[in-house]
Amino acid sequence: MHTLTHFRLCPFSRAARLALAEFAIEPTLVEERTWEWRPEFLALNPAGELPVLQIDDAAPICGIYAIAEYLGDTPLLDDADSDASIDPEDAGADHDPDDTTPINCKLFPGTPAERAEIRRLVDWFNGKFNREITQELLYERVYARMQHDRTATPDVDVLRAIATNLRYHMSYINHLADQRRWLGGDELSFADLAAAAQLSVVDYLGEVPWENYPIAKIWYARLKSRRSFRGLLADRMPGTLPAAHYADLDF
Amino acid sequence: MHTLTHFRLCPFSRAARLALAEFAIEPTLVEERTWEWRPEFLALNPAGELPVLQIDDAAPICGIYAIAEYLGDTPLLDDADSDASIDPEDAGADHDPDDTTPINCKLFPGTPAERAEIRRLVDWFNGKFNREITQELLYERVYARMQHDRTATPDVDVLRAIATNLRYHMSYINHLADQRRWLGGDELSFADLAAAAQLSVVDYLGEVPWENYPIAKIWYARLKSRRSFRGLLADRMPGTLPAAHYADLDF
């Protein structure tokens, strides 16, 4: 049995869920509020950060960097030996025959140079995009009320700065999606999943100005219609409902 | 010819320099002040972040995540084909016969699970340690004056918070170094290099309370005495001299 300790709107947790779903692995999800600093959680990951993946009884794999590279190292479904934790037939049984997208992807496909480009973009989204947009937006719109004061309202100046940053990032996604089949190159990769995970949080909160970035929108729609995305689209955060179009494949 | 665009006290640039030096690769170093937002630099790395590695005429490899994994993917010295960019004899000629440490290491040695543990720690140092200590300390002690106001003085409350954070991190390093031969396990790995790179910046600024963490000190002394560390120990930042013991192997 696999367990993913996560938080519903944590973008790194979402990236891990997408990656696992691409391998048709459905872990048991355990929600953690990192700001409560529970000793049991800190024993699992001393950094106190999400997500944490537990594969059977093995040591926990902590953080999205280690998890993504681990899945890249050991694509569990490709593993033909007897330790393979998923019966390929079971995984296949859940596969819609009309769904022409593969049920898994290599997270870091290509040559070392192509992999470096994918990782540059993973770093862009998990680092820069998260710092400049998702983390700030989550704090203003969700965490401030959960962690400090139920009556807290977002700081409009901060929201305005986030919106400015977001336009810059959307232009970049639009540009990449215009130049390439997927953000990191010809093949779907973890760069797409990391980017989509971040954007899915911003989209849940209704802040993505899709109409101005039509090519980015098409790229996101392709990801959103993948089987691996379904779990994320079903998420509902008590106290913070998603934007009306959040789960629509035709948005 | 290889080029590393870096900044002398940037911990990520230092981690890249250590990793390259472990492979006996000596790139041409080009210093960049990212806060000047030079268009030529942004053309090289649109994220505007350091370090950036250029291997011959290939596309730039941007950021410490992509660089470290690239070096893990393609250990250049292990590469026996004719593209190998370093003549092994040349590399050997620079090797001190009395120096029993290997001239290179695998950056992510071991099984996928062992590699996941190494990457957890890389994330700890490049993420958490950097955010809670190095980045803040560099701003207070170096960048505020370089970027904004030559007469700026550090905020003592911030310095006190950094010192508190540092004690916690030093305890963790001490604990890891007590349990294992190297931080990530039995073998030297990029976890050690990432940790040492961060600490080397804090040590340059004279802020590491070594006397209270004797096992961490022994671990750092072992790294510091490696050939790969020499470049870092020779660094001098105009306007900010290093602590007196900074370059001493016996500190």
Automatic annotation (TrEMBL), chains A, B:
The GST C-terminal domain, residue ranges: 111-246
Residue ranges constituting the GST N-terminal domain according to the UniProt record: 1-79
Taxonomy, superkingdom: Bacteria
GO biological process: glutathione metabolic process
SUPFAM superfamilies the UniProt entry points to: GST C-terminal domain-like, Thioredoxin-like
Acidic residues biased stretches: 79-99
Sorted UniProt keywords: Transferase
GO terms, molecular function: glutathione transferase activity
Region (Disordered): 79-103
UniProt xrefs under InterPro entries: Glutathione-S-Trfase_C-like, Glutathione-S-Trfase_C_sf, Glutathione_S-Trfase_N, GST_C, Thioredoxin-like_sf
Any matching Pfam family: GST_C
UniProt xrefs under PANTHER family: GLUTATHIONE S TRANSFERASE D10, ISOFORM A-RELATED
Subunit structure: Homodimer.
Official protein name in the record: Glutathione S-transferase family protein
Native species: Hyphomicrobium sulfonivorans
